[in-house]
Amino acid sequence: MPENLQAILLAGGKSTRFNTGKSKLTEKICGKEMIVYPIHLLQRMNIPVTMVTGFESDKILDIMSRHAIKNIATIHQDEQLGTGHAVAITKESWNKNHILIINGDIPLMTADVIQKLYNKHIKNDADISFVTSHSVEETNDSYCRMVIHDNKINVIERRDEKMDMDSQCCISVGIYIMKRSFLESHIDKLTKSSFTHEYYLPELIQIASSKGCKIVTAPVSFDLARGVNTLAELWAVEHIKRSQIISYWMNNGVRFSSTINVIIDFDVVFQPGVFVESGAHILGKSIIKKNATIGAFSYIKHSVIEEDAKIKSHTVIIKSTIGQHVVVNSFTQVKNQHLIDAIKKPAQKSPHFFTGAIKDEGKVENSHSL
To answer: How far apart are CA 294 and CA 24, in angstroms?
Structure first.
């Protein structure tokens, strides 16, 4: 745990660029709401958290309840006036010497990055430290851009069409560590944007630079730093997260016939020797045990597939347990059942038409065709 550090988690924005009328933080990424990722990250690091809520705060709090998230202080931002204002209203909660500030829409961020930033911040006795990256998308105004001019840092919160892109050194991704003393002295000096009429936290970087304060940066891969401001960015982030999940399980003995169109939720657990065929959806808190086979385009949610079970293609299994060695034939739905044995069918001639089931293997008890 980083010592003498507390976190401010910003979760009160309106998500206007999503164009859905809903908070983006309630959207799921690999089966888990976006806001849950940074909360769990900070809790794993044992960093005390104060979360600022605003738009659709009731839904954010409901998500926390459903995930049994506790020991998180919350402060409501009645009027959404930007990230700077959101941090300012938490002032009474500041009780550590260093304040970590993190946006709620960075679900791919890791503990290693935050620890690296903290280590550099402490080692250099910095007033303000922040995570940087590089984006090749010049037209993307989702990130504030750092411009070096006359050995000073200028912050471009929204893209200025006249800005010389060659002068841009990096982007700020929305993760900062600041001395509490610096924050207390300068948080009220933020100016209101003439464009949005909001107060933006990155302006503190420019203030620190102009006053000759100690500034430290920690560069990271853009994929880790990706924020989510649009549905297109949500799609990209979920694709990366899903690739991370599949890669993890491949390294732990799970074989995938094709990874392109397989969907695996974050909380799914596999044991070694499992084989997953193309197009399978394995969701919720499903557990797939040793040497089981999951057929192509099958759908499994909140279920347990025991060792050596074989789930044929185009099968739906919901809130059920499939026992060892059981074979579930294609085009079968199993819901709220515990199937222990397969029923062996007597040998019979193959029909001249396709029935949706493979006749040379057992059919599970009490299942019914779709």
So the answer is: 32
Q: Which residues in 288-325 are b (16+ Cβ under 10 Å) and which e?
A: bbebbbbbbebbbbbbbbbebbbbbbbbbbbebbbbeb
pLDDT block averages, 10 residues each, the chain of length 370: 90 87 94 96 95 93 93 91 92 95 94 95 94 67 60 59 55 87 93 82 87 89 88 94 96 93 96 96 97 97 96 96 94 91 48 38 41
**Nearest partner of 214 among 117, 124, 149, 144, judged by Cα:** 124
- Can you give the pLDDT at residue 273? 97
pTM of the model: 0.83
Query: So what's the pLDDT on residue 161?
Result: 44
Query: What is the SS3 assignment for the chain?
Result: CCCCEEEEEEECCCCHHHCCCCCHHHCEECCEECCHHHHHHHHHCCCCEEEEECCCHHHHHHHHHHCCCCCEEEEECCCCCCHHHHHHCCHHHCCCCEEEEEECCCCCCCHHHHHHHHHHHHHCCCCEEEEEECCCCCCCCCCEEEEEECCEEEEECCCCCCCCHHHEEEEEEEEEEEEHHHHHHHHHHCCECCCCCCECCCHHHHHHHHCCCCEEEEECCHHHHCCCCCHHHHHHHHHHHHHHHHHHHHCCCCEECCCCCCEECCCCEECCCCEECCCCEEECCCEECCCCEECCCCEEECCEECCCCEECCCCEEECCEECCCCEECCCEEEECCEECCEECCCCCCCCCCCCCCCCCCCEECCCEEC
Sequence-separated (6 or more) residues with CB below 8 Å from residue 12: 52, 53, 54, 55, 57, 76, 77, 80, 86
With b meaning 16 or more CB within 10 Å and e meaning fewer, what string describes 252-275? eebebeeeeebbbbbebebbebbe
For 38, the token pair is 């940074």
Domains and their CATH numbers in the chain: 5-229 (3.90.550.10), 252-369 (2.160.10.10)
- The confidence score (pLDDT) of residue 359 equals 36
- What amino acid occupies position 344? K
